[in-house]
Specification:
Helix 1 links the parallel strand 1 and strand 2. It is globular, with a radius of gyration of 15 Å. By secondary structure, the chain is an alpha/beta fold. Helix content is 33%, strand content 22%. The longest helix is centred in the first third of the chain and has 13 residues. The protein contains six helices and eleven strands.
């Protein structure tokens, strides 16, 4: 079974994070919510507090197949300022392991220079921080080991793109039907 981890920081966009968690768990893809805050309770950008499954230092990155970053402010800034997370992102990229991000969070990868020469999308107005990327306006964009998406309104297509990556297009289509997502 695929193993993924989604990283939460104070100010994360709740819908972007929790929609992905819900969809992946429904699909049988293991997803761990991991706090970078040094505590398991993390408060989103709309003052919704969730309890993460683990702290970042409890994640077995060697056994993890994908790092996922939700957007939101100042959540994205907090993720971008997390040196341990960025170290693991660099290692994932060097190994060709999957990296996904939605809304403003693709700017973390862009700021690290990891999107150079790749197609990527992000929240409107953040495109300038996708350094070197070929910016797209699609709901989700997959290029190589990156899956990016644009915002809260694209959280379902983003989650389905992750399911498609691990389980194929038919599984993503079946999940869309199960949740009555007619897009």
């Amino acid at each position: 079974m695929a193993k993924t981890a989604i990283f939460l920081a104070d100010g994360f966009e709740e819908i972007e994070a929790l929609t992905v968690v819900d969809l992946l768990r429904r699909a049988g893809i293991e997803i761990t919510t991991a706090s970078i805050m040094g505590r398991k309770n993390v408060t989103g950008s709309h003052k919704i507090t969730v309890e993460a499954d683990a702290l970042i230092d409890e994640i077995d990155f060697g056994a993890t197949d994908m790092i996922i970053l939700p957007g939101g402010m100042p959540g994205t800034t907090n993720l971008d300022n997390c040196a341990p997370l960025k170290k693991h992102i660099e290692e994932f990229n060097a190994a060709g392991k999957m990296l996904a991000a939605i809304c403003a969070a693709p700017t973390v990868y862009g700021g690290m220079g990891l999107l150079s020469g790749k197609k990527a999308c992000c929240y409107p107005g953040c495109e300038g921080k996708l350094t070197g990327a070929e910016v797209q306006t699609t709901e989700t964009t997959k290029d190589g080991n990156f899956i990016t998406s644009r915002g809260m309104g694209t959280a379902i297509p983003f989650g389905l793109a992750i399911i498609e990556h691990f389980q194929g297009a038919e599984a993503a289509k079946d999940m869309a039907a199960k949740i009555v997502y007619n897009h």
